[in-house]
Amino acid sequence: MKTKLIAGVMVMLVACSAMAQQQEKAGGATVPDAGIVAKLTEIVRIREALVEIEQALYKAGRSAGEGGQVELAEIELAEARVELAREKGQKELIITELQGLVAACERWVEWAKNMKKQARASEVEIQKAQVALLKAQVRLLREQK
User: Fold this and answer.
1) Which of 11, 37, 47, 85 fits a disulfide with 94 by CB distance 3.0 to 4.6 angstroms?
2) In angstroms, rounded to a whole number, what is the distance separating the alpha carbons of residues 123 and 3?
């Protein structure tokens, strides 16, 4: 289960890094590419379905929440929504979606802290979640400038 958590964190960190690079490259307003928007919209749709599946599994007791799968799915969904809003050039929506990302990261931090209290997670998981939260907060602050 820790392997899944580590893999999920690595995917998220790579995505955050790639998106930060895209932010730096993005200059003036451009017309969104319809093909890219369509693909990003499909990614958001799939990520929404994955969040619903993870939540249903957790509620049904088929997932013990190991590795924070619901929280990680929510973070990946928020990332996809930010990327779609950025592609569309919708600054206000980007800010809204980054606020959603911050909220998802906050839930991950809380999950990790609760798991540590139950001796089911270590301080390392908490610190990884906190780093993700801080990065999301920095992205939001940059976007709000």
Assistant:
1) 85
2) 16
Confidence check: pLDDT of 13 > 80: no
Half-sphere exposure of 18 (CA within 13 A, CB side): 10
Backbone torsions φ then ψ of 105, nearest 5 degrees: -65, -35
Q: How far is Cα 53 from Cα 23, in angstroms, rounded to an integer? A: 31
Q: Average pLDDT of 8-16?
A: 50
Q: What pLDDT is attached to residue 121? A: 81
Q: How many angstroms separate the CA atoms of 127 and 135, rounded?
A: 12
Q: Which tokens sit at 97? A: 């979606």
CA 76 to chain centroid: 4
String of b and e for 19-49 (b: at least 16 CB within 10 Å)? Answer: beeeeeeeeeeeeeeeeeeeebeebbeebee
CA 16 to CA 86: how far, in whole Å? 13
Residue 84: both structure tokens together? 């779609």
